[in-house]
Automatic annotation (TrEMBL):
PANTHER family registered for this protein in UniProt: IRON-SULFUR FLAVOPROTEIN (PTHR43278:SF2), NAD(P)H-DEPENDENT FMN-CONTAINING OXIDOREDUCTASE YWQN-RELATED (PTHR43278)
GO molecular function: oxidoreductase activity
Signal sequence segment: none
Residue ranges occupied by any NADPH-dependent FMN reductase-like domain in the UniProt entry: 4-141
EC number of the protein: 1.-.-.-
InterPro entries linked: Flavoprotein-like_sf, FMN_Rdtase-like_dom, ISF_SsuE-like
Species of provenance: Streptococcus gallolyticus
Top EC class for this record: oxidoreductase
SUPFAM superfamilies per UniProt: Flavoproteins
Keywords: Flavoprotein, FMN, Oxidoreductase
Protein name: NAD(P)H-dependent FMN-containing oxidoreductase ywqN
Length: 173
């Protein structure tokens, strides 16, 4: 069954290690017929969340605003980021913060996490904790995590990119 997938990337590097994972995931997902949309937060103009005096999210007119219908309509959200100071990049976090006015509409989605980082596996603990806490809060369903340590240069990803490809290819089967 065809699924609607949104891949949200946060890397400011092009090409970068996490960009490779996103590319491979998308290739696998498209091969089995999924409808995939991608938003590259690291290369887009995304305004920060603002909230008015009534605690309503103010929706800025920017590139994310025009892409947001894809996020709302998605069956699966895939968060792809290099590890920056033990978390998502600021660019991807700004996208997540903009979910605020839409929280009710975003509940019960499937999610995945793909991340790269130069350090050890232990360095991903804070990112995974945040991702899992956010998933609990939003009532999301974790469908997989791919955490690649030791990835500083794109060449460091190597054959491990195939794991992202398989995640895309097998989602929803």
């Amino acid at each position: 069954m065809t699924k609607k997938i949104v891949v949200l990337t946060g890397s400011p590097h092009k090409p970068g290690t996490s960009e490779i994972l996103a590319d491979y995931f998308i290739k696998g997902a498209k091969e089995v017929g999924h409808d995939v949309s991608r938003f590259d937060a690291g290369h887009s103009k995304v305004e920060f969340l603002q909230v008015d005096e009534h605690l309503n999210g103010i929706i800025p007119q920017d590139e994310l605003d025009t892409f947001f219908p894809n996020i709302l309509d998605a069956d699966l959200l895939v968060f792809v980021s290099p590890l920056y100071y033990y978390g998502f990049t600021a660019q991807l976090k700004a996208v997540i913060d903009r979910f605020y006015p839409y929280n009710h509409y975003l509940k019960d989605k499937d999610v995945m996490l793909l991340a790269t980082g130069y350090g050890s596996k232990a360095d991903f603990q804070a990112l995974v904790h945040y991702y899992e806490s956010l998933s609990d809060y939003m009532r999301w369903h974790d469908k997989g995590q791919l955490l690649l340590n030791g990835t500083y240069l794109p060449s460091d990803v190597g054959e491990r990119a195939n794991d992202a490809y398989q995640m895309g290819k097998t989602y929803g089967l």
